[in-house]
Design goal:
Layout (H helix, E strand, L loop, with lengths): L1 H10 L5 E7 L4 H16 L3 E7 L9 H14 L3 E3 L4 E3 L2 E8 L4 H11 L5 H5 L10
Parallel strand pairs: 1-2
Antiparallel strand pairs: 2-5, 3-5, 4-5
């Protein structure tokens, strides 16, 4: 009985979440460095959670933390989509980013629409598609 209940757990896809902590006083160069690592995680198809730590009086007004997250979002928008709106959780402001869906299947559908499959019925009706060589 126990083995049967374990099989469904193995077949489920595990979503790995990487967490990156930031500060409200972070310099732009440090944001660039952390976003570079986040982009590597996104390319590896992992979810990334940015967490801004609010210290002291910053926790009373989370606007500074949101400003940092919006700067990160503009740098990540080409590779990842934000999952929801930023959340304020006590001393933290966090925002989850997920990889964008692959666009390859859409291109394949368009290619099939542009090149319809060979229609053998037209040839059977007596239509001649050969070029005249006069």
């Amino acid at each position: 009985m126990k083995r049967k209940s374990r099989k469904p757990r193995k077949s489920k896809k595990q979503i790995e979440i990487k967490e990156i902590k930031l500060s409200t006083q972070i310099a732009q160069n440090d944001i660039n460095y952390k976003v570079k690592h986040a982009r590597e995680f996104i390319e590896a198809n992992k979810h990334v959670k940015f967490k801004v730590v609010l210290k002291g009086r910053e926790s009373q007004n989370s606007k500074a933390g949101l400003d940092v997250l919006f700067r990160v979002q503009t740098m990540m928008e080409d590779l990842a989509n934000p999952e929801k709106e930023p959340k304020t959780e006590g001393r933290f402001v966090s925002w989850m980013f997920v990889p964008k869906a692959k666009e390859a299947p859409k291109n394949e559908k368009k290619a099939k629409e542009n090149n319809p499959p060979f229609n053998h019925i037209n040839l059977m009706k007596g239509e001649n598609h050969a070029k005249n060589e006069d």
